[in-house]
Write a structure and sequence with these properties.
This protein is of the alpha/beta class. It has one domain: NAD(P)-binding Rossmann-like Domain (Rossmann fold), CATH 3.40.50. Helices cover 30% and strands 17% of the residues. The chain is built from 7 helices and 8 strands; from the N terminus they run βαβαβββααβαβαβα. It has an 8-stranded mixed β-sheet, with helices on both faces. α1 runs parallel beside α5 and α3 packs antiparallel against α4.
Length: 218
């Protein structure tokens, strides 16, 4: 990922999506970001919460990313996932930064996975089958993200974040991105291992070091 050419797409311009965008921009990575609002309506919001991010249509969120980083971050509420066309992210590494909350009305395909007690990222991998899904960025609160991202710190002094994915190359790309953003990424295994990163898991919303995560890695 060239420092000058890297572009990451973000689907979702809420508090999490804009927190991710700020960290990426500080790391010298360009950001294309889409939401349910059209780009013109999103411009003022981004000037306040993610200055420098480029508002785009959902259908265009991966256009530049495909030719640079190959990465798109999914940061929309899970109850709105049916509004995301799988074709938008085809051919990318899709970082699943979403979580399941008890009061959400989930799409039927996702609720079925929850009912079967499957990690939700496995259901997303089926839904977005033309992308390579990697679970990451979901177990840190957006309110802590700006302070937690420390690209100037030694790797061993950074906050550790877990990464789960079935595709080794895709998982490696995401880990490289997290290093650029200022974290210490730790692979915990395939997508099934993503359960430990979910809201009821042992890693969720805890300040962690590498050794804390490795205790749970598969």
């Amino acid at each position: 990922m060239s420092e000058l050419e890297a572009v990451v797409g973000i689907l979702g311009a809420g508090r999490a999506g804009t927190a991710f965008a700020r960290a990426l921009l500080r790391a010298g990575i360009a950001v294309d970001i889409a939401s349910t609002r059209p780009p013109r309506a999103l411009q003022h919001h981004l000037k306040i919460y993610a200055p420098g991010a480029e508002p785009v249509l959902g259908a265009d969120v991966a256009a530049r990313a495909r030719t640079s980083s190959g990465l798109v971050i999914l940061a929309v509420p899970q109850e709105e996932l049916d509004e995301v066309d799988p074709d938008w992210v085809a051919g990318t590494v899709l970082i699943d930064a979403t979580n399941t909350w008890q009061d959400e009305l989930l799409p039927g395909w996702l609720q079925a996975a929850v009912d079967e007690q499957l990690p939700t990222s496995m259901a997303l991998a089926g839904r977005f089958g033309a992308a390579r899904v990697v679970k990451a960025l979901n177990h840190i609160a957006h309110t802590e993200f700006d302070d937690a991202a420390q690209p100037g710190a030694e790797l061993t002094q950074r906050r550790a974040l877990a990464v789960a994915g079935d595709d080794d190359d895709a998982r490696g790309l995401v880990m490289g991105l997290l290093v650029r953003m200022g974290f210490d990424p730790v692979s915990v295994g395939g997508l099934a291992a993503g359960r430990i990163m979910e809201p009821d898991g042992p890693l969720f919303n805890r300040p962690l070091r590498r050794e804390d995560i490795l205790r749970f890695a598969r």
